[in-house]
Write a structure and sequence with these properties.
The protein is an alpha+beta fold. It has four domains: about 70 residues; about 120 residues, Tetrahydropterin Synthase, Chain A; about 55 residues; about 140 residues, no CATH class. It contains twelve helices and nine strands. The strands form three sheets. Strands 6, 7, 8 and 9 form a four-stranded antiparallel β-sheet that branches. Helix 1 runs antiparallel to helix 2, helix 6 packs antiparallel against helix 8 and helix 10 packs across helix 12. It is flat and about 175 Å long.
Length: about 450
């Protein structure tokens, strides 16, 4: 809405500027025509037309958007306003924050701050004095007590204007409110109330009661004028110098009296503590003496009773010693016999163990020999069978002898070339040795059977 208002104002101003520019243009052309007519001998040209009506109409039209813009009023946040008519005065109703339309020229809007405000005594207590001579330091509100002594009160009032009663405030109350209404009402309320109390009551005993009564009076008086009081604070009280000095002396004497009372009580307690300690020491010594006497009596009785039983106890001790010696001797003999018996048994056990070990060793060797013989027999039988098979194969294929010999020999084999008609003299010798080995193995098998 604010943008629209400014656009209307700019539009009206632009139209007025256009009208002025149009008239300036016509005047310029007219002056040029007059100059050319005066300096030329030729027949005069017709004068240029002047657009007086168009410029006037444009100027009249410019007032339209300007009047519309003047009729738009924007109330800022935290404030409120009332309409004031030029014919009927203040109109009822409140304009809250936002855009509002009023009658241009005929109506205006008066704005009021509806946020919380603070009034501190001394700074603006007298509105006229404060307006003519601003104070840089807050002065205290001077009131008189019941004794006629002057007190300085530091008071702070937190209040705000009631938005519903702004029309009444504008029409009936002097302006500004924070200088013309609030300071006198606050000062009169405290100055009417404090004289009913003494300085001691105002300063200490009934301070909160006085503050509460003053707050009620101020709230009622200002509420009638459309001012809402939220809090009344009594921050400080300045006592008269003479009273403050006397009160300080009185407090000092009271403190000294209290200190003396405390010291007296401490001394009395110390005396009582000393008496109690002496009584406790005395009772402790008596009890200790009685205990020592009883201990001595008991010791004497114990020694007398012990003397009666000393000889029988000595005799019993001697007999017990003899019995213990005999028991140790018997135990020594029995221990020696048991050790000898155990040694014999251990020797017998070790001999039997060695016999059993030797038998087991012989049996083991016998089994190993039988196993070795069986292995040799099986190996020889397998070798004989293998050699028979190889002999049969070689008889069928004599050329395999060269292959077998080459496989058995090492890698550094020297090859000999023999004629083909040598009749395989090397193969014949090998076959003969194989036949002889086979016959020997068969004979051994026959003998074993």
């Amino acid at each position: 809405m604010v943008l629209f208002k400014y656009l209307m104002l700019l539009g009206g101003a632009g139209m007025i500027a256009a009208a002025i520019a149009l008239l300036s243009r016509d005047v310029y052309f007219l002056s040029q025509h007059k100059r050319s007519s005066a300096n030329s001998d030729t027949p005069a040209q017709p004068a240029p037309t002047t657009h007086w009506r168009g410029a006037f109409a444009l100027a009249l039209l410019a007032w339209g958007p300007m009047l519309i813009a003047m009729g738009i009023v924007v109330v800022p946040s935290g404030m409120a306003g009332v309409r004031v008519s030029q014919t009927s005065g203040t109109e009822p109703g409140t304009l809250y924050p936002g855009a509002h339309f009023v009658t241009p020229v005929a109506e205006s809007v008066v704005l009021f701050d509806t946020r919380d405000q603070l009034f501190t005594t001394g700074a603006v207590e007298d509105g006229k004095a404060a307006s003519t001579k601003p104070s840089t330091k807050n002065e205290l509100l001077n009131v008189q007590s019941k004794e006629g002594l002057s007190l300085g009160l530091a008071i702070t009032i937190r209040y705000r204007l009631d938005a519903k009663h702004l029309a009444y405030i504008q029409a009936n109350l002097p302006q500004p409110i924070e200088r013309e209404i609030v300071p006198p009402v606050v000062a009169s309320a405290w100055r009417e109330l404090v004289p009913n109390y003494t300085v001691r009551e105002v300063f200490a005993t009934r301070r909160e009661e006085i503050r509460q009564k003053a707050a009620n009076v101020i709230t009622q008086k200002l509420a009638a004028d459309g001012i809402i009081v939220k809090e009344v604070m009594l921050r400080d009280i300045q006592l008269p110098p003479e009273y403050a000095k006397g009160l300080e002396d009185l407090l000092l004497k009271e403190q000294q009296n209290d200190q003396m009372s405390v010291d007296t009580e401490i001394q009395q307690k110390q005396v009582r503590i000393a008496e109690l300690q002496a009584e406790a020491t005395k009772a402790q010594q008596v009890k200790q003496a009685e205990g020592e006497a009883q201990v001595r009596v008991l010791q004497a009785k114990g020694e007398a009773d012990a003397m009666q039983y000393t000889l029988p106890l000595k005799q019993k001790q001697i007999e017990e010693t003899k019995l213990e010696a005999e028991a140790r001797k018997e135990a020594t003999v029995q221990s020696a016999e048991a050790n000898a018996t155990a040694t014999v048994k251990n020797a017998e056990a070790m001999a039997q163990a060695k016999v059993i070990d030797s038998k087991a060793e012989m049996e083991r060797r016998k089994l190993l020999a039988e196993a070795e013989a069986e292995r040799i027999r099986l190996t020889s039988a397998a070798d004989a069978e293998r050699m028979r098979n190889e002999g049969a194969i070689l008889k069928q294929n004599p050329l395999l002898i060269n292959k077998i010999v080459a496989e058995k020999l090492s890698d550094k084999l020297q090859i000999m070339m023999v004629p083909a008609d040598g009749k395989f003299f090397f193969a014949n010798d090998v076959l003969k040795s194989m036949n002889m080995a086979n016959r020997g193995s068969e004979a051994e098998q026959a003998e074993e059977k």
